[in-house]
Fold this sequence. Notes:
Elements: H1 2-43, H2 74-89, H3 93-114, H4 117-126, H5 132-160
Helix pairs in contact: 1-2, 2-5, 3-5
Amino acid sequence: MESALAFIVWLGVAVIGPPALLVWLVRRRRRRQRLALQAAATARNEPLVTASAGPPANEPPTPDSSDGFRFPYGVPLVIYPLLVIGFGSVASRAAIAGITLIATVLAIAFGREAFSHASFEKIRSNDPTMNLATWRINWLLFFAIPPGVLAILGGVRLLMK
C-alpha cells in the first residue's frame, strides 16, 4: 500500500508541478514588469496608473495589448489532479476504462489544438507576439502530454486487471 501511495503522490507532482511552475513564473514576470513600470513612472515624476483605475468616463475602455493571449492553465490545474485521484481511488474495470477514455479524449483534443493552424492564426491576429513554437510547446507540454500519459497508465492498469 505504501508504494502505491508513493507512486500516486509522485505522479501527482509530475502532473501538477510543470503547470504550477509555469503559472508562478508568469506571475513573477508580470510582477517584475509592473514594478519596473512603477519605478520608471516615479523617476519621471508621472502619476502612477494602477490596475484598479479605469478609463475616464468619457473615453471608451481600450484593450490592454501588453498582456496578449493567455493560455488557460486553470484547465490542467483542475482536471488533471482529478484524473490522477480517480486513477488512484477506483478499483472497478469500468471506472478505470471511463477515466482512461476521458484522458484519451483530452489528449487528442489538446493535441489537435496544438497543431491547428486556424486556431494559431486566430490568436496571432490578436496577439502578434505569439509564435508557433510557443503555441505548440504550451499546448503539448501542459495540455496534451499529461492526459496522454494518464491514458497510457490507465491502459496499462486495464491490461493488468
